[in-house]
């Protein structure tokens, strides 16, 4: 749950050419069944949309079934219900298995109209060999004697057998309630980064044969601990961008290539004290530095929003509380502006290096007992935003406890100790109308046409090789930092400084001839006499019939160009043009791909061109950074 209190405990609460015209989107009418199981795994992405294996839009209409990551508050005996969040003791497994059969709980999910479940787990759960208590599975006696992981297995099996998609969510390192200063602030807060990666490979492999396990949600609410902030791109042990990039690629290459890789933004940085820097970055850093996975079409970004937090408010009351606005304090217009800036720009701006689906994987509000005007208004306004943007979403939480129809109240479904259910649609829950609007809202359905990919290369602190083929080959420039486009994409842009690159398959573009190898170019041997396209500069030019797919650097200096052969007849080889970007941007009037190197000059070939060479100067005072690209026409 989205409760970041850095200084206090959490309170209880075959691709088409880019020029091809896309068909008009189809839309579902309100009231259309949304939880039908007739979808085809695996899932992938096309631009801002998630699609199934048939290319049809699959909107994540999800909920969170929490518990396996822990409900213990961190103090007192874990055996006492009072020491668990809101008095709800999950028993180290998905909440509610002591009160209702799994089949009944899943039937309740289907009544809500969801088609997918975010299923949190802790790293500790994976290795926990202590069987769950009989009381924890009192309503599911077949689960007696099993470990928490084995119960998790059974839940995954039953959810997917019912046609629901499951997203694995690494919520915490240790099995306890999230999210304050609790030893779970980062992926490597309570275990090493390597152990965290290995746990992810274990989980991805464990469910590989179940194709309705569709995603890996890498870590929940990355945030500040007592002393240090997480960051996005600094290259140190707290770099969430680098950690998520690395484990995402490892999951796809070593465990399960079918999974969606879901990366949440940074939840909190700074000290929540008036006068000191602090903020909730969410997905804002993605605009300047985005992920490029080895498989295009597998990246999903995510974000969490609750009324009591804010863009600069931790959500605390008392210690850790500041005078900053909470989301519920914003006017509807202000809320839209903030939400778009923090997250929804990723889906709203097309043909950018960061364009991807955004899954609002947590949002929620108190139910029957919530009488606050601003809280209720925020929920209605936030649902309006989800509908307006046709966003993928996951409500937090699905399951809770009640006694005599009272309790925590946030869940959509509650069971009491006798197994009696209290549901969203019992007639006394004010959220029912908004939820019905949300799950039945008009939105895009049907086939989503393949899109052009735009991907950033960022060898800022080490190799950034997004090509499966090049990863499988020996190091082609030892000692240098190497950047290579994903297979099927070509290098189309470079920055003068900053070492950044831009890849694309715009205008179809040349594919890598599977019969060819690759060439590492470190000199001018392929420059044709009489065709000096950058006089006085060193030119690393690809051989005829080849195109640039990567480069390497040493410090800021160009080291080598990586060229690969195109299929015969797919590119021209007689002439080209020089695009200079040493003194100003050289990207044309309306370049696509977005600003892939903020604050640096950039050069970019036109959409109907490919890059065939890099030029730099070694004269005194120069850092040997890229100064020009040699762009040639596609056929």
Poorly predicted runs of 5 or more residues? 2-36
Overall helicity: 10-25%
The span between the termini is 52 Å
Secondary structure: number of strands: 30
Averaged pLDDT? 93
* Main sheet summary: 8 strands, parallel, barrel
Placed side by side, the strands forming the largest sheet appear as 4-5-6-7-8-11-12-13
Could you characterize what this model shows?
Helix 4 packs parallel to helix 5 (240-254) and helix 7 runs parallel beside helix 8. The chain has helices spanning 102-112, 123-127, 148-161, 193-206, 240-254, 332-348, 373-388, 432-439, 468-471, and strands at 26-28, 44-46, 49-51, 61-64, 116-122, 165-172, 213-217, 260-264, 269-270, 278-279, 299-304, 358-362, 392-395, 399-401, 413-415, 421-423, 443-445, 454-457, 464-465, 481-484, 490-495, 501-504, 519-521, 538-541, 546-554, 557-565, 577-580, 602-604, 609-616, 628-633. The chain has 635 residues and is of the alpha/beta class. The strands form eight sheets. Strands 4-5-6-7-8-11-12-13 form an eight-stranded parallel beta barrel, surrounded by four helices. A five-stranded mixed beta sheet has the order 19-20-25-26-23. The chain has a four-stranded antiparallel beta sheet with strand order 18-22-21-28, with no helix packed on it. The model is unreliable at 2-36 (pLDDT under 50). The N and C termini lie far apart (52 Å).
């Amino acid at each position: 749950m989205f409760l970041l209190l850095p200084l206090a405990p959490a309170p209880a609460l075959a691709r088409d050419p880019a020029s091809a015209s896309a068909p008009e989107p189809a839309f579902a009418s309100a009231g259309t069944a949304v939880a039908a199981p007739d979808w085809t795994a695996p899932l992938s992405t096309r631009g801002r949309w998630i699609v199934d294996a048939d290319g049809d839009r699959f909107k994540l209409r999800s909920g969170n079934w929490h518990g396996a990551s822990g409900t213990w508050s961190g103090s007192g005996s874990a055996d006492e219900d009072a020491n668990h969040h809101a008095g709800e003791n999950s028993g180290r497994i998905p909440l509610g298995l002591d009160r209702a059969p799994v089949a009944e709980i899943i039937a309740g999910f289907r009544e809500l109209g969801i088609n997918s479940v975010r299923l949190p787990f802790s790293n500790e759960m994976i290795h926990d060999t202590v069987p769950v208590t009989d009381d924890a599975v009192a309503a599911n006696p077949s689960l007696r004697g099993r470990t928490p992981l084995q119960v998790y297995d059974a839940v995954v099996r039953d959810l997917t057998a019912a046609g629901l998609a499951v997203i694995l969510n690494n919520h915490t390192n240790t099995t306890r309630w999230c999210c304050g200063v609790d030893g779970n602030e980062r992926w490597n807060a309570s275990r090493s980064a390597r152990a965290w990666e290995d746990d992810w490979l274990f989980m991805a492999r464990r469910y590989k044969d179940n194709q309705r396990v569709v995603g890996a949600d890498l870590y929940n609410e990355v945030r500040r601990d007592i002393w240090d902030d997480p960051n996005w791109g600094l290259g140190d042990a707290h770099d969430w961008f680098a950690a998520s990039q690395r484990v995402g690629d490892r999951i796809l290459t070593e465990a399960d290539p079918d999974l969606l890789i879901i990366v949440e933004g940074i939840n909190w940085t700074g000290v929540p004290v008036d006068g000191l820097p602090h903020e909730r970055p969410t997905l804002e850093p993605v605009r300047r530095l985005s992920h490029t996975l080895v498989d295009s079409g597998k990246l999903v970004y995510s974000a969490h929003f609750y009324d009591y937090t804010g863009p600069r408010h931790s959500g605390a009351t008392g210690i850790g509380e500041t005078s900053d606005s909470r989301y519920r304090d914003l006017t509807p217009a202000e809320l839209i502006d903030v939400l778009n800036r923090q997250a929804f720009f990723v889906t709203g701006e097309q043909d950018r290096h960061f364009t991807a689906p955004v899954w609002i994987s947590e949002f929620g509000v108190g139910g029957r007992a919530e009488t606050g005007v601003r809280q209720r208004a925020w929920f209605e306004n936030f649902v309006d935003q989800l509908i307006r943007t046709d966003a993928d979403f996951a409500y937090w939480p699905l399951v809770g406890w009640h006694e005599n129809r009272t309790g925590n109240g946030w869940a959509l479904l509650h069971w009491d100790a006798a197994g009696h259910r209290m549901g969203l649609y019992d007639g006394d829950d004010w959220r029912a109308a908004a939820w019905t609007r949300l799950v039945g809202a008009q939105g895009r359905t049907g086939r989503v046409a393949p899109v052009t990919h735009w991907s950033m290369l960022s060898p800022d602190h080490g190799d950034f090789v997004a090509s499966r083929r090049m990863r499988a080959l020996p190091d082609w420039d030892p000692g240098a930092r190497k950047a290579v486009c994903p297979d099927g994409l070509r290098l189309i842009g470079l920055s003068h400084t900053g070492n950044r690159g831009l890849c694309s398959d715009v205008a179809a573009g040349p594919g890598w001839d599977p019969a060819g190898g690759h060439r590492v170019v470190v000199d001018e041997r392929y420059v044709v006499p009489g065709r000096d396209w950058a006089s006085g500069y060193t030119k690393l030019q690809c051989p005829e019939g080849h195109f640039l797919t990567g480069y390497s650097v040493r410090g800021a200096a160009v080291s080598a160009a990586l060229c690969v052969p195109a299929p015969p007849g797919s590119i021209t080889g007689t002439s080209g043009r020089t695009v200079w970007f040493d003194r100003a941007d050289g990207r044309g009037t309306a370049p696509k791909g977005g600003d892939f190197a903020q604050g640096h000059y950039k050069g970019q070939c036109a959409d109907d061109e490919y890059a065939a060479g890099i030029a730099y100067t070694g004269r005194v005072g120069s850092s040997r950074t890229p100064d020009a690209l040699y762009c040639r026409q596609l056929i």
